[in-house]
What we know:
single chain, 175 residues, 4 helices
Amino acid sequence: MSTPVDHATWLQSHLTTLCESESEDSFHGSFDSVFAPGCQVIVNHTPASIDEFKDQLRTNLGASVSAKTSWENVITASPRSPSEDNQESSQGVTSDQASIVAAFVTITRSMKFRIRAAPAQRQSLVHLSAKIEGNGTEEADGRRITSLLWTSVERTPPIHFPTPHAVAAQTGSQE
Length: 175
């Protein structure tokens, strides 16, 4: 019998797999396994359909050869009211309860073309808040994101040029 995986771990694992997918088929399969069909999506404070979000995400990831996802400040909260939380403060959020997971994610994509012999890179700085519903174990996972708030900024990381070494001044005498 397997142990349930908490929602934060589940979200990190599944979104990392989605963002780092290398083919169209794996992207679409991962996307469909993560998001509920009627998922409510808000991208940069604008409501979007799940299909619009999928197309936008695929477009951002499409020109890359590889991607690396790093997670920071991952927190999990219960969508229950504070009075319900006080009544059940001794119980944590289990995998069969709905929960909200928020995090800051940096997705660094290496592009197909090069700048000064190194792959060009793009970064997506994302703050997300996802409501996850359903339950699951490692064998059968019924969890899906049912509501997503996605705020992102695209940027190019700075290019670091090597600093030339200083030439040591020589004195007139040699031994």
